[in-house]
Automatic annotation (TrEMBL):
It comes from Sphingobium phenoxybenzoativorans. This is Uncharacterized protein. It comes from the Bacteria.
Length: 101
């Protein structure tokens, strides 16, 4: 089953959980307010990391993106936008893709 979801959140300066009902294979988060940062995460990357592009330079970020497993028995799986991305009062657009199981 292939799935795609997208949305927008406002950064808080702290980590933000995005509940999808599944753990994504790919996530992209873009700071729309400043248009100065793009973070990408692929399933299998270390928790809290992302490939971060800003000012035309790609680097490996910390406090980036992680898979979010929810709590035992619920269906609130998804991903976490880490504090390194969640800049306070900034609009963050995201999309997540899940490939076939």
């Amino acid at each position: 089953m292939n799935e795609f979801k997208s949305g927008v959140v406002t950064g808080t300066g702290a980590a933000i959980n995005i509940e999808l009902g599944w753990i994504p294979d790919y996530v992209k988060v873009v700071n729309i307010t400043d248009a100065d940062q793009i973070d990408e995460w692929f399933n299998g990357m270390a928790a809290g990391t992302s490939i971060q592009t800003n000012a035309a330079v790609a680097t490996r970020a910390t406090n980036g993106i992680s898979a979010y497993a929810g709590t035992l028995g619920d269906k609130k799986k998804g991903f976490t936008i880490g504090s390194g991305i969640s800049e306070s009062a900034k609009e963050l657009r995201w999309f997540a893709i899940r490939g076939e199981d």
